[in-house]
Amino acid sequence: MRFRLTPRETSFYELFATAADNVLSGSKLLMELLGADPATRVEIADRMRAAEHAGDDATHAIFHQLNSSFITPFDREDIYRLAARLDDIMDFMEEAVDLVVLYEIDELPKGVDQQIEVLGRAAELTAEAMPRLRTMRDLNEYWIEVNRLENQADQIHRRLLAHLFNGTYEAIEVMKLKQIVDVLEEAADAFEAVANTVETIVVKES
């Protein structure tokens, strides 16, 4: 850890923890969508939209704090990147829920539940990791596991695509379902991007 003579603005830690907790809430709404009757999905989508707005608020709070702070706990570009990538996760999860509702999907294909379970685990790890930025300790297992989960998500995504293109579905249905599973894969990629950013921060500060 580099020694500093100047005081640092510490509210960023709480702001990142808030953003990550909101991501965890979003992942739980995704899980709730899986077992929901199509008639109740609109209400879940409304709650996910509210969570996405809360995520935007958390991101804007971090940017505001960044613009008003002379001394930051770590590099400004890393603060910006970490906030933006946490926001990306919420955007992708909200988009997936919205597409399920807009396309009036009666039944999601087998394998989507596995995608969402991976996202839920990544969200838990991310929410647990953000408070540890304050000490920069015990974070290596976090980014290693999130990278492993992203590899698992890649495999699930490929199997889903193979299933969608095996002739079971009509062409228009394939297009709709592919867009949903692709967005969920983008959410997994975004979790990995957050973990990689955290690794970069820790390496710089060590």
Structure characterization notes:
This is DUF47 family protein. It comes from Streptomyces litchfieldiae. InterPro entries: PhoU-like_sf, Put_Phosphate_transp_reg, UPF0111_domain. This protein is mainly alpha-helical and 206 residues long. Helix content is 76%, strand content 0%. It contains six helices and no strands. Helix 2 runs antiparallel to helix 3. The chain starts with 10 loop residues before the first helix and ends with a helix. The N terminus is likely disordered.
Sequence-ordered SSE layout with sheet pairings:
Blueprint: H1 11-34, H2 41-68, H3 76-102, H4 112-129, H5 140-164, H6 171-205
Helix pairs in contact: 1-2, 1-3, 1-4, 2-3, 3-6, 4-5, 4-6, 5-6
> Could you tell me the mean pLDDT?
93
Poorly predicted runs are 1-7
Count of DSSP strands = 0
Structural Rg: 18 Å
Distance between the termini: 4 Å
Per DSSP, the total helix count is: 6
Class inferred from helices and paired strands: mainly alpha
Percentage of helical residues? over 70%
- β content, as a range? under 5%
Main sheet specs: none
Protein name: DUF47 family protein
Family: Belongs to the UPF0111 family.
Pfam families: PhoU_div
InterPro entries: PhoU-like_sf, Put_Phosphate_transp_reg, UPF0111_domain
